[in-house]
Amino acid sequence: MKKTSTRLADGRELIYYDSRDDVVRDAADRRPLDPVATASEIRHDRLLGDHVAIASHRQARTYHPPADECPLCPSRDGRHSEIPAADYDVAVFENRFPSLAGDSGRCEVVCFTSDHDASFADLTEEQAALVLEAWTDRTAELSQLPGVEQVFCFENRGAEIGVTLGHPHGQIYAYPFVTPRTERMLTSLAAHRAATAGGNLFDEVVAGELADGRRIVLEGEHWVAFVPYAAHWPYEVHLYPKRRVPDLLALDDAARTEFPQIYLEVLRRFDRIFVGWGAGKEGDGASQGPRVAAGAARTPYIAAWHQAPLRAEHRGEFALHLELFTIRRTSGKLKFLAGSESGMNVFINDVPPEAAAERLREVASK
């Protein structure tokens, strides 16, 4: 991997990650950009104990531009984008409309490929491995920034999720606090350690799923993917390295080599979940949620890497893992977060995890 760091016209950092060492990245950003003006502020909710980012400047961010005006495509034919080069493998840059900025953290955009019409599932194993290297490198770099407590790499895909740019990309947030979801994991981890005289909850969860077997989706030598016993979402897969590590930096070479094979197969299965299914296969109820737009082929999803906070006590006991889930619960229908989920954070899942795992095994590559 070759890494080249440069600057955009407004001073934001841009990093190219190339699979070849002989690539030269010297294209200049010729856009007449004004300096980035952000007003990100972190406010603490005293009742819930969590944090909210107030970022009013994001109202002006780019919203569903036509394909020929995509800001994540390479700069070609006289049209300048966020990527000055005419082509790229993987590119990472500071978000022009960040949720977190300055003392409140940092937000970056990760462009997985220069191909506007592709998706992560379309990448080759070599391309996916390069994205993993970029995630790992950015985690290392962002972890060194003053005030950063946790680094979060993720991908939102699909208009149903709320994605405003169709180009295949993800994001990285460097939070100045530990997120509520991770805090809850750490609390459960500590309680289990105390109750079992040193047992590790993550290890027991993975071992339990492997022993049960009904919810296993895919297993390799170094990774295992399963639908969790208490899945919140209709189709939800957790991907763990079999050797527990706290973050991406700690993965060994064997796990890095196998990751693209396992992850790409899981993503491709996600795109086949609903193929050939008629609407209502899982029953028709009064709270089925909104219909998905006709012709929507690719399954919308969120893919989220969970890494140990940088200064957590017993940090080595945390287990790096990726959580992948879709808000589509059957063909043509979405899982809508209504009163119980949004109001009380109590999820109601319409699809039994065992049935979801069975379907994800059915749609395996031949």
Distance between the termini: 32 Å
Q: Assign a percent range to the helix content.
A: 10-25%
β-strand amount: 15-25%
Give, in order, the helices and strands. EEEEEEHEEHHEEEHEEEEHH
How many beta-strand runs? 15
Numbering strands along the chain, what is their spatial order in the largest sheet?
A: 1-2-5-6-8-7-12-13-11-10-9
Could you walk me through the main structural features you see in this protein, from its secondary elements to its overall organization?
- There is one protein chain.
- This protein is 22% helix and 21% strand.
- It is built from six helices and 15 strands.
- The strands form three sheets. Strands 1-2-5-6-8-7-12-13-11-10-9 form an eleven-stranded antiparallel β-sheet, sandwiched between helices. A two-stranded antiparallel sheet has the order 3-4.
- The chain has 366 residues and is an alpha+beta fold.
- It is globular and about 60 Å long.
List the helices and strands and how they pair.
Elements (H helix, E strand, L loop, with lengths): L1 E6 L5 E6 L22 E4 L6 E4 L35 E5 L11 E6 L13 H18 L7 E8 L11 E7 L4 H16 L5 H12 L3 E4 L3 E4 L8 E7 L11 H18 L30 E6 L14 E6 L1 E3 L2 E2 L4 H6 L8 H10 L4
Antiparallel strand pairs: 1-2, 2-5, 3-4, 5-6, 6-8, 7-8, 7-12, 9-10, 10-11, 11-13, 12-13, 14-15
Question: Which descriptors apply to this entry?
Answer:
366 residues, alpha+beta, 11-stranded antiparallel β-sheet, two-stranded antiparallel ribbon, 6 helices, globular
